[in-house]
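Teaching assistant here, posting this on the class forum so everyone can see the example we discussed in section. The complex has three components, and the goal was to see what a joint structure prediction looks like when all of them are supplied at once.
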Amino acid sequence: MKKEMLRKAFGIAMASVMAISMVGCGGGGSSSSAAPASEPKSSAAPEASSAPEEPSSAASEASSAVESAVSAASEAGAEASDITIGVSWCAIESQMWAEYQNTIKAECESLGVTYTESVAENDVQKQNQQIEDFISQGVDAIIIAPADGEAVVSAIQECNEANIPVIMANRAAGEGCEVYATISSDNKAMVKREIEYIVSITPEGTKYRCLELVGSLTDVNAIARQEGFEETIAEYPDMFELVSTVPTEWKGDQALAGVQNTFSADDTVNFIFSPSDALLPSIISGLQQLDKYAKVGEDGHITLVTFDGAADAVDAIREGYVDVVSVQDATNQAKLCVQAAVDAAAGKEAQDYTDAGFEVSSQNIESEYADFTGY
Amino acid sequence: MNTLKKLKSIDAIYWFVAVFFIAALIFVPGFANLAALERLLSQGCVLIILACGVHLTVLNGGVDFTSTALLALTTVVGGSIMSTKGPLGGSAGALFLGLLVMVLLGLGFGIINGFSITTFKMPSFIVTMATQMIVNGLAVVYTGGASVTGMPSAFAKFGKGSIFIFPYLLIVAIGVAVVMHVITTKTLFGRQLYAVGTNHKAALISGVSPRKTIFKAYVLSGICAGIAGIVMLAYMQSGSVNYGATMFNDIMGSIIVGGTSPAGGRGKIANTVMGALLINMIDSVLNILGIPYYFITLIKGLIILVAASIDLIRMERKAAR
Amino acid sequence: MEKVTARAGKAAEGKRAKELFMDYGIYVILAAMIVFFTVQKPNFLTISNILLILRTSSVLGIACVGMFFVLIVAGIDISVSMNMYISAVVGGTLLNNMGMPLIVCFIASCLCGLVIGAINGFFVTKVKIVPFIVTLATYSVARGMALFLTNQQMMFLDNKVMGLASAKFLGISAFVFIFLAVVIIAHIVLTCTQFGRQLYACGNNLQGANKMGINGPRTVWFAYMICGTLCGIAGMLSACNLGVINPNFSQGDEFVVISSSIIGGASLFGGKGRVFPGAIIGIVMVQAIINGLTMIGASAYVYTIFRGVIIFLAVMVDSIKFSGEIR
């Protein structure tokens, strides 16, 4: 009896797995915007319909104008609503990536582009598989935020062979493959400017004993930020001394452990460089536990320099705890990715875009960036 | 009647694979074309080879966690040796040296595992766990976390090339599976392995040396891991310390779904290969259907539970007869 | 004659020394480690650093106590890390979205962990699947559900948790007190209650225990549920500590918990292990490695190697005296 029950249960389970897959087939791959898709078409319609209502002598002109208007409109309509973009995420493990994801989704919806995504959770091999599965799905363009810029090259080569354009989101790919466009930030220059800002506001004779946190070493951005930091502080050897470098693999618990253990080893550390705001909550938690979380200007303040421009980092600057953050405009970058993807699918030319970024600090947050909230 | 009997005797896993494959061909858009199938076949190669290796250790009721970590170590070490950016400049000699080193690394750690398990009597679970940490650590120390690139073009052709729709990588994987199959079914060692897995003491009394048999199992598993590393390096065209981090669930899933008992003593290599194909297909097909990563993870977990339950029922039935 | 007795005498001495070493080998390795680190960096053995190590060990230490229960009944639980993840997510959701007080969130996490433990126990005792496979499956299921609940994104916890993370009594972190409380309660349950004795009996010989009238399956089931509940607590504590629940929350922790428990004296074959002081020593040893290596400024890349080697040595010392079947 029990065995029969279990057997039936199994049958039902297998059937439901298949059923779910079919439902998923219908539901998945279709953050497709049925409603917004009609918008471009409807905007094309009035243009097309207004033209025949003008039987003027400039009819030929009008008709040619109409033709071009209609063709442009229908091209736009065809471009936008017939395209499927596949987005391969490495992992949504920072506010910046969450902003990227939300913006790309919203942008696709508003343009009437069909959007499908996959998140690899930092699994390099899985990401390559997911990209290849996009090729099988037959998407028109692929946006990639790679877990490993080098390892993803082989998947991009497959995309090249399948004639599917690839856009790199925020992280560049390695050599050996063709990428339609790369949208990224000028990490090194941004970090350099941050440190220069710190130098500019620091009184003579102050010594910074620094803890440097490093992101994932397969992330070109993390490497660029590390290089930017180390090269810049090397220019001011009297002011900066690098006490400890802790790799975090972009994980909060490693950042926390790094903070705790470094202070335990050397209590005189007074400067922390964080390569991303995503690590900030763990760093702050660590500092609070050590009773070292003081505001700018107060005794015992640990100078905090971070990167990204997330809302909680900006708030912390406003409250006076964090000194400066380099902001990369994830919203704009995401929009550019989508635009590049749409252009790519339409066969147009594209350009790389490098976000120069800007700094928000405790000094300028009340003046220049009073309205800035971060993402 | 005879054909009916023959059909009944085919293990269930073959039916599942066939049904799923046909269903996918019919229902999944984009799946029924040669390029997609070729991709699917290449994706599964590493899993097939690793599953074969770990299968041998599971036959004794043990496990081998090190094999996934060896993917990381072998690809970075081997990759750096054969790299065009490396000290040997990507020559043919460098290529072969790299391949050799990869297999030797797998062999070496297989020996360490086997020795610890048989001579020091350490439980395989914890030994291979510790070795996994060490191997992963070595991979990270070797590269400082960065990836290894610049594979010679001959190797790239090997990784991407195929005969008809059968990628070279698949041929390697099938080759390994066939060798494993022959070893487990046709050789004395294979019979000894099953004997030891079924009943340790009885095997001992029959003159089989459990120590030597189990030792060989772990060594073979290590070699398989080395070969899997070669296939991985060819497929990804780069070496990375991240490889294999999440593969273990899939490996055990392939073995269980294939009908091998985790307590040891029974399970065919061929079924494990089918299991690997099934798991790989589920991954790919559900991906193509747009089903999110977390749902696929969930489903694979459920499948392991269901498969293990079914297996138990079948065994109880057989025992009841 | 004399020579023989003399030789026998010496051999006996040598054997005794060997036995002593093997019985207390773990402590020897621990002591060697402490000496090594302290010599390099005297800061290592300061009160504040010891407290720090204790604090870092608290979260996973609680999970270790849970693991002890499962190991004692000769089981294993690989799903502990994802149990922690989904319990933290459940607790975090209540905290953020419904503004519940922290204690309610903790209770919710416990319940979530309990459910997962119950599922594990069910499949192990009723369906009779090998624990390794059951918990491997629940690992994936829990992970999938947690990623689903968070939509594969980060979950920031409300600032309320900062209070708990920095709470201290007498200069010692609240986390340490919670850990020690769990250890003491578990120790009392295991050594002074009938249930505890039943656990050891089931671990030593399940069939024998059944014959003696103990409800073996139910006892084992409870062990898994206790482990699950403790993982729920550990998960929520970890989330409070970090202030954020990442998609890679707790990833890889199952290996740390299992190896710490085994170093602490529990056995994969069941029937042995004392949570006091075993769980504490086990987790402290493993965490102290990272702390010590950071202090001496060792390259961060060697952490895992060191951990693996220490675990290897500890288990080797423990296993040399085991004369049963190879597994």
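For the discussion questions: DSSP finds 13 helices and four strands in chain C. Residues 58-250 of chain C form one domain. Think about how each of these relates to the inputs above.
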